[in-house]
Amino acid sequence: MLYRKIPENGDELSILGFGCMRLPVKEDGKIDEERATRQVRYAIDHGINYIDTAWPYHMGESEPFLGRALAGGYREKINLATKLPSWTIKNADDMDRILNSQLDRLMTDHIDYYLIHGLVGTLWDKMEKLEVLDFLDRAKADGRIINAGFSFHGSIEDFKRIVDAYPWVFCQIQYNYLDEKSQAGTEGLEYAASKGLGIIVMEPLRGGKLTNPVPPEIQEIWNEAEIKRTPAEWGLRWVWNHPEVTVVLSGMNEESHIEENLRIASEAYPNSLTEAELQLVKRVEQKYRELMKVGCTGCRYCLPCPSGVDIPGCFEIYDNFSLSGNEREAKLMYAAKPGGIIRGDVPGYASQCVQCGECVEKCPQHLDIPSLLEAVAEKFEGKDHRGWRLIAKKSFGKE
């Protein structure tokens, strides 16, 4: 296992972190605790020392499970990360109540790496008004949390102002070879690093979309490589190739995935990919763009929409569906993300589009956004949409 340092505190973290959002489950949808415990402990025994969870994962069961899994001395071997569910917060008392509950659920007296969860600009503005920074100062002073950070899903402009708003030790961003210009992107990665933040990367494989299924056109490009690697290894090594990255989280739920990722994490040094290999990845990225139904880069130039449509969010779900074919997951995530459930925001569904055309003028990709939104609404807002919205509320702890 390779390790990289958090600049602010000098902690040496395993470059591979264990994400607890996609643990193995039984037929009833509940965590398969026996198997998941074996997986978590095996990962720790083989060098992983950063474990990440959150309040809503697995319908609120991830934190209690992890508390039990880390018993018997495993808690002391790792840096534990969890998150304050910012969208649920109504007042300052909520912050202390939830943190104290998380300490109980995780069976610990402190959180090593504590994040404000899922920030976008408007949600950050709300949390600032509720004095979240004072809360972080109090929680650090009394030892309930050690290091403060945030996870992010908004625009680069909002990312930079959040980075500058507090002496954060670290941040967590979505980053992979399809997201160089999405959300924080490469610009945000480099900006946070320039400010001395450790950087935790989530979704390095786009939730598995870059590995399963692999379109034949993509596999043909990978096959050209002199050194043969799986799509997962290419995706992970591309992220680890960036020296600014501290930890890459992987939601591992198959033993074979854990073994493969551990192997890769023992070899993936920064700046270790050749120029030819980087060009190969670029070709794969371009081919994925061609295969996607929309090809939106997530630049967000189309926002704000006068009708409140989350245009990039709608297109992200639609493109992910076009690659994976997983209709159930797509409908759930459409209800949760553009539906505003995850972020505690108002819905931004495709059907809200009134075809004013403002977005078309702004789009650097020259997409026919209104027509594409019609296709998204037709696909994801059918008769079963209300049911998927109820499932999303339950899944993300909004009931």
Q: Which fold name fills CATH's third level, the topology of the largest domain?
A: TIM Barrel
* Unreliable segments of 5+ consecutive residues: none
Which strand-content bin applies to the residues? 5-15%
H and E order: EEEHEHHEHEHHEHEHEHHEHHHHHHH
Can you put this structure into words, describing what you see?
The chain has 2 domains: 3-280, TIM Barrel (Alpha-Beta Barrel), CATH 3.20.20.100; 311-395, no CATH class. By secondary structure, it is α/β, with parallel strands linked by helices. α7 links the parallel β7 and β8. The chain is built from 17 helices and 10 strands. The strands form 2 sheets. It has an 8-stranded parallel beta barrel with strand order 3-4-5-6-7-8-9-10, surrounded by 5 helices. Strands 1-2 form a two-stranded antiparallel ribbon. Helix content is 43%, strand content 13%. It has helices at residues 33-45, 57-60, 62-69, 92-105, 121-129, 132-141, 156-163, 185-194, 216-222, 231-240, 255-264, 275-291, 311-324, 327-336, 358-362, 369-380, 385-395, and strands at 3-5, 12-14, 16-19, 50-52, 79-84, 111-119, 145-152, 170-174, 198-202, 247-250.
